[in-house]
Every structure is written in structure tokens, then in C-alpha cells.
Amino acid sequence: MSKRYKQAEEILATPSAEIKLPIHKPIAIYYRQSTIAQIGNISTSMQTIDMVKYLQNSGWSDDNIIMIDMDAGISGSTKIDERPGMSRLFDLITQGQVGAVACQDEDRLFRDVTQIQVNIFIEACRVAQVLVLTPSMIYDFANELTGTYHARQFRFKAEMAAEYVNSIIRGKLHRAKKRLTMEGRWGGSGIPPGYMIDMRKIFPDGSTNENWKRYVPFEPYAEVVNEYFRLFLSYAGSIRATVRHIQEHGPYYPDPVTCLPPQGYKAHYKIKRYKNGYYPGRTGLAGMLTNAAYIGHWVVNNVIVRWDNHPAIVPEDVFFQAFNYLSKTGLDGRVNPHYVSFQEHSRPSRENKRNVERPLLSGMIVSQHEGIWGNVGTNWVGPQNHYAYVLWGKFPQDNYIWGKAAKFVDAAVERIVQRKLTATFDSNVWDNTVKEFEKNYTKERKRIQAQISNLESVMENLIASLGTLNNEQMIRATEKRYEDAQVEYERLQRQLQEMSSEAIQVEELYKIKDNCGPLIENWPNMNRDEKRVVLHAFIQRIEASPVAGHGLHLKVFWKDDSCDEITLPRQATTGTNWLPEETALFLELVSTATSQIEIAREFPNRKWAHIRNKHWHERGKGSGAALRFRPKPIKDNESYEDYLRRTKNDDSFVDTGSVSCSWMNSQNLVTG
């Protein structure tokens, strides 16, 4: 019987030929480069510019093209929720906001050997009926006829991309590097200061160099390293004291730009230049003082694999004196019996034993020093039995900048918060703030739940497939994939449980709104955690800056873009010190014959007796007659706030402009 040949187009038609593109729906372009070094190269242009043109030619309008390029420098082997761009793409898919996803190649989306993340992605696209477009293939996982084939092809491409990384990069290249390092030769990692690498593989006479790619002492740096060991021992094992000495007096490393190794050698150090020169920080110095390379041993992954591999540059007795101050384990990995730690920070946490509650604003205050913003720390001041907010300078200075007793700062901010919420309370504003907080929580929760749901479908399919397999190798491979999926499932479940704390915060905010009311009358009765929930919901940040006279200026930035400010004077043991500008304002008010209540209003927390004493201090006790009033609205033992509470917030007594409430002229002074 003769053969019947078919027309070419009938057998060459690709599975994607009949797929209708959803050009009426938005499409997301996913862009990713694996490393920072690749950003901006020709591949970047292919993934973005060319893909946009391709989609425009396919019928999508510019308004319907969504560019997702937040994953620059992130590997494709990372999980969906570990990539900001992929997380957003997953949300768009599961929420039905896109009809298709476009990328330059499948490996831009995933390089996943386990196939867990790939399967979650495929299942999400299948359920949402979202296409995946590449220049060579259009994937329709929801298609009844071709969906299985497309899913298999997509998995294959993603797995091959991961296998390339494992076999070529992590395989051949890493095996070559491992072989070198196990021979005691340099394989491209960091070089300890004091050594250089002998790069001469063959000598001019044709003989082989046995020291090729081995450590050789680099004297200009080796001398400095030995001096660091000597200094450390002279300070009895104190890292902090040693670094302070080095930063102030040296010695410093030579400048690596001008101090170069001889021809045929290589030296590249990870050292940093500070104000006075190049030298190690505390972490770097501790690493140096315990690095067995300095006594000639070769270390790979914290294990000595070759003893006496290269020349030592530090005497053994000196090295071990330093080593025993710092390392709990010996060079063989066992407990170091000679370990004697210098207790630099030898106070354990005593939070539970302290009778003072942790400060309300701990972790919420920032401050600027020499143009650099940093977090203000929370320190326990033992002798005074209180907490303090302290700003420390950045390394290498690491010095005290300013400090303030935490209870005074907390009290000031609490007053601002109560005034703010009392004066501007709006039920709609409160509701909007809480709803925005709840929206972010709900969005993240839905994303994780969608991943879990898709993963459950994948796991069910794996279980179902086991019943159809007879090949032992395929059964083991399927079981391995199920085990990997189970690990990912447990990770996602933990994330979901961790989010329960945010759900509690949402509930607490609603509860606070219902219980507190517009005047926030219940604030004094709230505990610390309840107050912090409110603070985090309404405050963006708190900036603190020192002012003259040991005062502190606070700026509270609210989430409605407004800002409140307050200046705290130095808090003395018997009262609150006056700031210079407060003193100037006070004397000006006295000279202009301002009323008693108007002057007290400017210093609402100071009792009138203290205000009068301040006038005596500045002008002499003989000037006290100028402060006598008849009648006298505010009593000596009252502050302006006390007065308002007594009169139920009614200060209309002074607002009438009554002469009896003004500073008295000389003819009206009461004598005696």
C-alpha cells in the first residue's frame, strides 16, 4: 500500500498556533537578572525593550502592559515570596488582574530543580486561565487538550535551567575550585592581610613552582598584623580597647593602591579605609586573631585540611595566647580547654528582674549625627534604676553622642499623642487608617493562602501519580518531590501562623476605637502593648536632636503628613531646667506686662511658684513685687494644666482682657 503524505502545515503546526491572545486584558512582563553585574547588559534590553515591542505588535496597548522589574540581581532559584517582583506577579495572577505573563525565557521565571515553585506557579496560571508568553512558546496550562503538554514543557525548561546552574557553574567550576582548595592552593576567595598569592605556575627555567597559588608573606602588611596581635595581648584580650587604640594611634595597613605586591604575585584584601587610615573593625580583628592561616595552616569551611601548608607570619605562642581569649573551640573543633574570655559585655539580660517597664518608644526614635541618620538605642542605667534613650556614634568612633531619660521622653510624646487624637479625632480618619493596615495584612495573607492552595493541588497530583507508576526510579523521584513540597507547605503554614499577630493588631485597633472614644479618655488605663499598637498605626517616625543646655528636640511625624514638635529641657533631679530660649521668652513676656494666664500658658507644666522663682533668679528677689496679682487666677502650687483641670478647661477668665488679670502697673502694686 502506498503512503499517504499530509500537507506540511498539518504536522508542523505548533500547539500555540491556535491560541487566542487576551489582548483585551493587561499583560505583565517579568524581568529578572541573576546578579547585579548583569543589570543593564544586552540581556536586559532583550528582556524589556524587545519584549514590549513584541507585545505591541501582538495587539496589546501600552496602557495594558505592566512592567515588573523589581527582581534585578535576585536568583531564579529563590522562592516566590522571596522575590518582590515575583510576589507581585503572583498576586496579579491569583487576583485575576492579568490575562497573560510575558518573559524572554522560562528561566527568567524559575530555575527550580525541586519543581515546587514551578508547580505552584503553573497551578495558579491554570486556575486563573493566564497564558505565559515567551518568544518561542505560548503556554496555556488551562487548555483541555494541550495544557498537560504545556505544563510538561514549562517544567522541563525550568528544570534544565536549574540543572545548568548545578552541573556547569556549581559542578565543573566549583569542582575545579574545590580541588585547588583541598590541595592547599588559593581558589579565588579572600586573602588574609599579610599574605599574597604566588601566581607563578612555571619558573623561567621551565621548572614547576610548588608554591603556585599558595600563601606567601607580604612583609609590609605582615608587620602590621604582628603588631595587632601584640596590642591585643597588651590589652588583656579586649577587642574594643584594641580597636580604639588602633583607630587613634595606629598602626594602619599600607595603602593598597600604592603598596603593591611584586610581579608574579597577587594580593587583594577586603579592608576598609576609615578617617585615619586602613585598619580592621571589631569583627575583622576577631577573625584575624583566630585565623589559623597566620600560623601556616590551610582552612576550608572552618576545617583545617592541610597543616603547615605555607609559611607562618605570627609566632605560635603569640597566636595561641590571642586565640585562647576568643575561641571556645580548638583548631581540631573540640572544646578549647584554655579558653579564657575577656568579659567585654558580661551583663546578662535582666528585663524580668527590673521593676521598671521597658520604654514605650523603644525602637521608634531616630536621630542624625554628622549627616547620618541612625536608630536611637535603649540602655539600662543601673545606678539610677531607669532606662535611657542613647545615640551612639557610628564605628569607628562608637562614642556617646547624647542620652535622655526614657520616662521623660515617653511622657512628652504621650502628651502629644493624647492632644493630637483629642483635637483631631475623626471617626472616618481612624477607620481609614485601620482599614489600610488591615488591607496590607489581608493582601499578604491571601497571597500565602493562594500558594498553599496551589501547592495542595500539586501534592494531591503527586499522590495520584504514584498509583500509576511501576518504575522504581520514577516512584523514588515522585516521592522526593512530594517530600520537598511538604517542606515548602510547612514553611508557608508557619508564615501564615506568624501573621496571626498582625490580625490581633487589627482587632486591637478596632477595640481601642470602640472603647476609647473621641477624647481618648482611656489612654492612662492602657498597657504598654496597647499604646504601642496606636503609636505604630498613627506615627510614621519620631526624630530627636539635641539642643543647647542638654535639651532634646522631638519631631513627631504622623501618617496624615502632619508634624508636631516639642523641646524637652534638661531634666534635673529637683525639677525641669529652663532652656535659654525659654528664659528669653519668659523675660520678654514679663517686660510686656502679659497676663498671668498667658505667661503660664507658655509653660504649661511649670507650677506658678517655680515661674516666680525663675524671675527672682534672673532679676533678683527685689523684683518679686512685679509678679503679684489681684485677683490671682492660678495658685502658687498649680501649673497651667492644673488650672485648666480645676476650671474644667475654661480659661475665658483671661480671654475677656480683664485688667485684673494682667501684669500690674507700678501704681497698682500691692506692698507688704
Write the layout of secondary structure elements.
Elements: H1 8-12, E1 27-30, H2 42-58, E2 65-68, H3 84-94, E3 100-102, H4 106-109, H5 116-128, E4 131-134, E5 137-139, H6 147-182, E6 195-198, E7 215-217, H7 219-234, H8 239-249, E8 265-266, H9 282-289, E9 298-300, E10 303-306, H10 316-326, E11 365-369, E12 372-375, E13 377-381, E14 386-392, E15 400-405, H11 406-424, H12 427-466, H13 472-498, H14 500-516, H15 528-538, E16 539-547, E17 551-558, E18 563-568, H16 580-591, H17 596-602, H18 608-619, H19 640-646, H20 652-655
Parallel strand pairs: 1-2, 1-3, 3-4, 11-16
Antiparallel strand pairs: 4-5, 6-7, 6-8, 9-10, 11-12, 13-14, 14-15, 16-17, 17-18
Helix pairs in contact: 5-6, 5-12, 7-10, 12-13, 12-14, 14-15
**Share of helix among residues?**
40-55%
Count of individual beta strands: 18
- DSSP strand content: 5-15%
Name of the level-1 CATH class of the largest domain: Alpha Beta
Q: Helical segment tally?
A: 20
Name given to the CATH homologous superfamily of the largest domain: Resolvase, N-terminal catalytic domain
**What structural class should be given to the helix and strand makeup?**
alpha+beta
What is the name of the CATH topology of the largest domain?
Answer: Rossmann fold
CATH architecture of the largest domain: 3-Layer(aba) Sandwich
The biggest beta sheet reads: 5 strands, mixed
* CA-CA gap between termini: 139 Å
Query: Could you give the order of strands across the largest sheet?
Result: 2-1-3-4-5
pLDDT averaged over residues: 76
From the alpha-carbon coordinates, what is the Rg to the nearest angstrom? Answer: 36 Å
Shape: flat
Low-confidence stretches: 5-17, 35-49, 342-348, 652-672
Tally the structural domains: 4
